[in-house]
UniProtKB/TrEMBL annotation:
GO terms for biological process: organic acid metabolic process; xenobiotic metabolic process. InterPro entries: Cyt_P450, Cyt_P450_CS, Cyt_P450_E_grp-I, Cyt_P450_sf, Cytochrome_P450_fam2. It is a peripheral membrane protein. It holds the Pfam family p450. Keywords: Endoplasmic reticulum, Heme, Iron, Membrane, Metal-binding, Microsome, Monooxygenase, Oxidoreductase, Transmembrane, Transmembrane helix. It comes from Tetranychus urticae. Its cofactor is heme. The chain crosses the membrane at residues 12-30. This is Cytochrome P450 392A12. One of its GO terms (molecular function) is heme binding. SUPFAM superfamilies: Cytochrome P450.
Length: 505
């Protein structure tokens, strides 16, 4: 019978086993050291968790601080992953155009968030197909065309009535949140909500809560073992977070059910377009797990979350600076007087003749940095950023914040100064190539054209009608909070004072 004693009696066998073990150990050490040496330098932190315990809420600030010590491209061990940080413009410019950096992490960004991935979490050909289809549908139903401008203008008419509160303060954050949800609802579901509709209020609140908790979920993405543990035993306030996901999810499911019942041939919204594509694939017998109701739900959720938080946060930053610097309101209003007047509603083309207004929007993007990092990327093969080697499967984060506050690019970067974009004669606003709030390259933000329309029209429509103020003595701070987006932490209620004819003369 075989026993461990017999094993050790057979000297040649022992020698062979030891030899194999040593060979594997040396090979393992060789590749580990090679991999570590090929990564850009950086702090490695503690065993198992790496640098995670040292990262506070405002991750982008810590990433920026470390770049001052380790250089513009460095590596950070976050949980089980080696993450490469890109923190200056020359390297970022190189990275956003690198096709080997278009993939997403293997693990889901939201561990425990159910089956299936949204297009924001997909890699390779499933991502390409979904991205192509999404842009195609959104373009067909009006994104980038005059249709969307008309729809946003109609929504703004409804929104403006909610600001009219006889000179009493209004919760701007709430009002703008509901209104922006409506613009995305039109694209996704083909209809909007009455601003007092309990469904709209519930979804908007759930979306908000998901947004502010996502940082935490992001941390769990670096420690898959922690996330399974946390989800299994339902630790901390996850029950509430899961509830919020369920609210958004069941609402989207409800919309999908209605669309399936309607069974319309006409594509008027994203759900119609996606269901039509699924049907086409079925008819061609193209059995494809990548196109399913589950993924449609995930995509709609991604558009909902990404399409509302970033736009409303940018509008909140604009309000902060309009109230802090009332002379900026006056200058925009004087452009409104010259180009549009106070009777006609603004059009998106008016922006071409309103350089100062556009400069205010550019500066709000820069100083607010509502997306201070991109969503995590993964290197799909060994590649390079500048002269740095990036091994396959490294995760990569672009720290837009560092570029937006780089004093070499922006003199006095903490100052809100729209004039930095104006040509000498003030006739044009020029956005420099290093201001990329929507990221750049093949995986840039697909909602950029909708966001641009929204920001211009909301800003101009508000100032055409109202002077924005706070109660005397109210502090308006530039402090930020950071979850899904970076937004003002304490935007006070705002007063929208109607502009009278005497003001205009
Ligand atoms: C001010 C407004 C917005 C800002 C600053 C913004 C910014 C961004 C950024 C920085 C990314 C990451 C790109 C990367 O990984 O390099 C992104 C991705 C994305 N955004 Fe936006 N966004 C805005 C509005 C919108 C809107 C209105 C929508 C939809 C209607 C939207 C939908 C998405 C989606 C689905 C992705 C993931 C794309 C992919 O992975 O292929 N965003 N956005």
């Amino acid at each position: 019978m075989f026993s461990i004693d017999n094993l050790f009696e057979s000297q040649p066998l022992v020698n062979t086993l030891i030899g194999i073990a040593l060979f594997w150990l040396v090979k393992y050490l060789f590749y580990t050291i090679k991999r570590i040496r090929s990564l850009p330098a950086g702090p490695w932190g503690l065993p198992i968790v790496g640098y995670l315990p040292f990262i506070r809420d405002h991750t982008y600030l810590e990433f920026d601080r470390l770049s001052k010590k380790y250089g513009p491209v460095y590596c950070l061990k976050l949980g089980v992953y080696g993450v490469v940080l890109v923190c200056d413009w020359p390297h970022l410019k190189d990275a956003v155009s690198n096709d080997a950096l278009l993939a997403k992490p293997h693990a889901s960004l939201l561990p425990g968030g159910g089956e299936g991935r949204s297009l924001g979490e997909m890699s390779g050909s499933p991502w390409q197909e979904h991205r192509f289809l999404s842009l195609h549908i959104l373009r067909d139903i009006g994104l980038g065309k005059s249709t969307i401008v008309t729809l946003v203008k109609e929504e703004i008419d409804q929104f403006l009535t909610t600001l009219d509160n006889d000179g009493k303060p209004v919760d701007f954050k709430k009002k703008i949140g509901h209104s922006i949800v409506n613009n995305v609802s039109i694209l996704l579901f083909g209809h909007k909500y009455d601003l007092n509709d309990p469904a709209a209020i519930e979804i908007s609140a759930a979306n908000d809560e998901i947004g502010s908790s996502l940082n935490f979920a992001g941390v769990m993405a670096f420690l898959p073992w922690l996330s399974s543990f946390v989800f299994k035993f339902k630790f901390i306030n996850l029950t509430r977070l899961i509830k919020c996901f369920q609210i958004v999810d069941s609402h989207i499911q409800n919309e999908i059910d209605k669309h399936q019942e309607k069974n319309s041939q006409e594509v008027v919204d994203y759900i119609d377009g996606y269901l039509a594509e699924m049907k086409k694939r079925e008819e061609r017998n193209q059995i494809d797990d990548n196109f399913s109701i589950e993924i449609l739900k995930k995509n709609a959720g991604a558009f909902y979350g990404a399409g509302t938080a970033a736009v409303s946060s940018t509008m909140e930053w604009i309000m902060v600076y309009l109230v802090r610097y009332p002379e900026i309101q006056d200058k925009i209003r004087s452009e409104i007087a010259d180009v549009i007047g106070f009777e006609r509603r603004p059009d998106y083309v008016d922006r071409i003749r309103m350089p100062f207004t556009m400069a205010v929007i550019h500066e709000a993007h820069r100083i607010g940095s509502v997306a201070p990092n991109n969503l995590l990327r993964r290197a799909s093969s060994d590649t390079k950023i500048g002269n740095y080697n990036i091994p396959k499967d490294s995760l990569v984060i672009f720290n837009f914040w560092s570029i937006n506050r780089d004093p070499k690019l922006w003199p006095n970067p903490d100052k809100f100064d729209p004039t930095r974009y104006l040509t000498e004669d003030g006739s044009k606003a020029v956005k420099p190539p290093y201001l990329i709030p929507f990221s750049a390259g093949k995986r840039n933000c697909p909602g950029e054209s909708l966001a641009n329309v929204e920001l211009f029209l909301y800003l101009v429509c508000i100032l055409q009608k109202y002077r924005v103020k706070v109660k005397p003595g109210t502090e308006i701070s530039t402090e930020a909070t950071f979850g899904l987006s970076r937004r003002p932490s304490n935007l006070p209620n705002l007063i929208f004072e109607k502009i009278s004819n005497s003001d205009l003369s």
